[in-house]
Amino acid sequence: MTMYDILNKKKHGEELTAAEIRFFVEGYTKGSIPDYQASAFTMAVCLKGMTAAETAALTEAMAHSGDTVDLSCFGTLSADKHSTGGVGDKTSLIVAPIVAALGGKVTKMSGRGLGHTGGTVDKLESIPDFRTTLTSTEFLRQVETVGMAVIGQSGDLAPADKKLYALRDVTATVDSIPLIASSIMSKKLAAGSQNIVLDVKVGSGAFMKTPEDAADLADEMVRIGKLCGRRMAALITDMNAPLGCAVGNAVEIQEAIGVLRGDVHGDLRTVCVALAAQMLTLIFGWEESEAEARVNTVLQDGTALAKMREWVVAQGGDGRYIDDPTLFHRAAHSFTVPAPDDGYIAAMDTEAIGRVAVLLGAGRENKEDTIDHGAGILLQKKSGDAVQKGDPLCILLTERAEILPEAAELYVKALTFTETPPPVRPLIHQTLH
Ligand code: URA
Q: Which residue in the list 78, 183, 186, 193 is annotated as catalytic?
């Protein structure tokens, strides 16, 4: 078998065997297949696509290219969720304590933010002394005793994907459904959970711009997970506006606490209830209506909030911040952006709003950049809202006072105003099993 023959076969649109795909993944991971052949492979996949069997073989080969986490000690209770990324997406911080409060074992490895999207690990580091790195023994012990742990990516999970993703990033080969699906699912399979819920975002702040593309991606990932013996569900949720009203780090933790305290309602709570209910349905086989009712109960009676506090303290964080979220550091300078005219907010360019948050210091452009946990945006109006000239659109928070005029201008430019109310968009487009 040679890489030349594999590339030639793929170029002509022929189906590759699982052995050929493993040959490529193993060779590329250990360095015997060079970047130029791997680039030709990813480009051929972008142009010719992959069959379901090829995508599954690629996923399995990448999942087994490095370490895998053994969660067999939790039987069928282990659960994980993955979001394809968005702005203001703090759902993991809410869903994980809800599911743990109801008996699930949530094992979550999260990423840092890059570009316009935020990362759970950065958000958690707003809590003084919170440890986002645990040894594997600490991780498993905490999941056993508390019911959940959330840490940064650790170990050598799916190194083939790490290498291939970096290559795709610079060869215009990211936007291929088989490549995205296998990339995400290889990491989820290596991370070991039996029950996996995917939150596939669609809209102006997401990878997938149309509900049809999002459904294709979700479908592919659900199919791969099931083929590999995992219980799977996927929700397709709207990212045509930031989720909730806080974008940043400390402000997003505060908003998550607000949902768990029962003070915050709206789109964020709705998506979290749906995700948690899907996870519990997978784990325990409950009917969706029963799962939702139980989720609402632990939100109302304070059990989920108490679970969040227990989790934060177990990872070294200061529990007083959960009891009193006003303790969180807030950036020194703030500016309230006024509405330029009367009308309705018809659309929000969510990616552009994510970039305003980065400009304020809440995110990073490059991996090495440090972030300012107290910076961010507090939305006062969202899509569909009526505004009068001068009404507050949002509050910008930053340590860099000099960038406030530019940030305010960019924020207003990210909004589309109309004279009549825009149509209402669905928040949850579809649920796939
Ligand atoms: N996220 C991933 O992990 N991989 C992709 O290919 C795209 C998004």
A: 183
